[in-house]
Design goal:
The chain is an alpha+beta fold. The chain has a domain of about 120 residues: 2-Layer Sandwich (Gyrase A, domain 2), CATH 3.30.1360. Helix content is about 30%, strand content about 15%. It has two helices and six strands, in the order ββββαββα. It is elongated and about 80 Å long. The N and C termini lie far apart (about 100 Å).
Length: about 170
């Protein structure tokens, strides 16, 4: 006789996360931001990493907009948090599905998409740096290859360009 069990998890995700003393789930997978899912207040809060030196608002905004587009977070509730440079949104209540699990699932999707974009961006920056630090023979000249001339370029010596000189 074969027994078939129907049910179980519909999806599983793997994240670098830890549980805080207050029950919050702190997700640290993203390179630029940390994400907290707070079950007590039903909020998703994002914080910049302490090592982040650039503006991370765009990453935070994209996450909360994705959560709102997927119907997990109320778009009208997205606002700055009470911690400097934090952004938060309120998770919708639901009886059909566990809203916290839905939020964690969409956050995992966001991290996966952002990881791919970050890889492309990092590869581009590395290629650009290599282009400037190790140019090909076609893109570089040896010292002395370009002959010297008295006037070079578009700026003539002694001539001062003033576009508003003849205007009142």
């Amino acid at each position: 006789m074969i027994n078939i069990k129907i049910g179980g998890p519909q999806a599983t995700v793997e994240l670098k996360a830890r549980k805080a003393l207050d029950g919050s789930l702190l997700i640290t997978d993203h390179k630029k931001i940390d994400i907290a899912v707070v079950p007590g207040s039903m909020k998703v809060t994002t914080f910049p990493k302490t090592t982040s030196s650039e503006d991370v608002y765009e990453f935070q905004n994209r996450l909360l907009e994705m959560l709102a587009d997927e119907g997990v977070v109320d778009r009208a509730s997205i606002q700055g948090g009470n911690v400097f440079r934090s952004l938060e949104g309120v998770i919708y209540e639901s009886d059909a599905v566990n809203p916290l699990q839905a939020a964690v699932y969409v956050i995992a999707e966001f991290i996966e998409v952002e990881y791919k974009h970050e890889q492309i961006s990092d590869d581009y920056e590395k290629g650009l740096e290599d282009m400037y630090t190790h140019p090909t023979d076609r893109d570089s000249t040896e010292y002395g290859e370009v002959p010297q001339q008295a006037d070079k370029g578009s700026m003539r010596p002694g001539y001062y360009y003033m576009p508003l000189r003849n205007r009142y």
